[in-house]
Every structure is written in C-alpha cells, then in structure tokens.
Write a structure and sequence with these properties.
The protein is built from six helices and nine strands; from the N terminus they run ααββαβαβαββαβββ. It is α/β, with parallel strands linked by helices. The strands form two sheets. Strands 5-4-3-6-7-8-9 form a seven-stranded mixed sheet, with helices on one face. α1 packs across α3. It is globular and about 50 Å long.
C-alpha cells in the first residue's frame, strides 16, 4: 500500500468514521478518491490532515479543500441517491465534487476563480469523472444556466442568505452547507417542498467563507 493510500485509510478511520459517518457508499468513495491529487504538489503531504487545506493559485483569492470530516458529514446529511443530480458550489479543485460523483448520477461543480476552475476541470478529466461538469461561476449564482438539482453542497461557508441557491433545488431537494450568518456558525440542511423551504441545524461547524458569499458589513455611525 502506498503512503498516500495508507494516509487515506487513516483519514477515513480516524477522522470520518469517528464523526458518526456510517454511509458505506460515502466511506468507499472517500477511500477511493485520491485527495492528494487535488492539492498542489508542495502541499500534498498535508492532503489527509484534519484541516481546511489551501489550494489557491499563486496570487489568487484563497481557496480551500474543506476538512474531510466536514465534507463527509455534509454529504451524508444530503442523503445522495444514485439517481440524484448534485451541484457543488465553490468546488475549489474539485475534491468534494469527485466524492459526490461516486454517489450521484450527475455532478455540476462551480468555481469563481478561473485558474482554480481550470485545475478542477483538468482533474475531473484526468480521473475519468465523466459525470462531472465544471463551470466558472460565482458562488452566489450557483448554476449560471439556472438548472435545478436534487442536492446542492456549499463547499465552504456562507455569511449571507442563499435564497437564490435554494430556488435551484428540485421539489424535495436538499441544500447542505455551513451557515456563518450567526454565531456560532452551524452546518444546516435546507429542504424544498414546492415553494416552501425548511431549515434544520445539523451541528456546529466552521469553514472558510466562499468568495461571493461574504457577510455584508454592518453600517455603523
């Protein structure tokens, strides 16, 4: 077993399983997808650590792979079915999209930083993820073609309401992500039933704010 494969097994056993992630399809996906491939070469040694890992292009806006444990817990909460269409918002280099691709029929991944989006597109092709489409788009826009999805994953936190993204859910769809709109920040799931939306707290969590979903500064005198 290679050093990366060993580190991947330790990540799943020590970070993911111990966080009440029990979905066997999800665990198998995390054991299969090489997280190190989504990390710049000089940071691959940190690929399996329990941290939000900077994968930014030189001189660009900071972009991160969200902690493996948080990615796993959010995907498990979304209850992705093999027939589902999934939108990953702010995909960075595409790790979460690659995991989702092992669970869903089709994945669309959006990224707002052109250099990082290009990396995500190339990696999806290199890894043979034929059911992943990568698009350049702001996190606030979601899918710029306004398609609708069974699941939407925020690959990071939002500091503002995401009503527009919620409207891209199919009836019965689920949006999962970290909401930093109040303190403490919390992972939440939003579900759609026709024109009604319900939100439920999953657990306390933190993640880097996605570019385009930063909180609006409060006006002060």
């Amino acid at each position: 077993m290679s050093a990366f494969a060993t580190a991947r097994q330790k990540m799943v056993d020590g970070q993911v399983r111990t966080s009440d992630v029990t979905d066997h399809r999800l665990l198998d996906a995390m054991l299969t997808v090489p997280r190190e491939a989504f990390v710049p070469a000089d940071r691959q040694g940190m690929a399996y650590l329990d941290l939000d890992l900077d994968v930014s292009a030189a001189g660009g806006v900071k972009r991160y792979l969200v902690k493996p444990m948080l990615t796993a817990r959010l995907l498990q909460a979304a209850e992705i079915k093999p027939t589902d269409r999934v939108l990953v918002v702010g995909c960075a280099t595409g790790y979460a999209a690659a995991i989702a691709a092992k669970l869903a029929a089709q994945v669309t991944a959006t990224e707002s930083e052109p250099a990082v989006e290009a990396d995500a597109r190339q990696l999806a092709a290199k890894l043979g993820l034929a059911n992943v489409t990568v698009k350049l788009a702001s996190a606030a826009v979601g899918d710029p073609t306004d398609q609708h999805y069974d699941v939407i994953l925020l690959n990071g936190a939002t500091g503002v309401a995401v009503d527009g993204l919620c409207r891209q859910l199919e009836n019965g769809g689920r949006l999962v992500g970290v909401f930093a709109t109040s303190k403490p920040a919390r992972a939440m799931i939003v579900t759609r039933s026709h024109d009604d939306f319900g939100a439920r707290v999953l657990f306390d969590a933190t993640a880097p704010i996605l570019p385009g979903l930063e909180p609006v500064p409060a006006f002060t005198f």
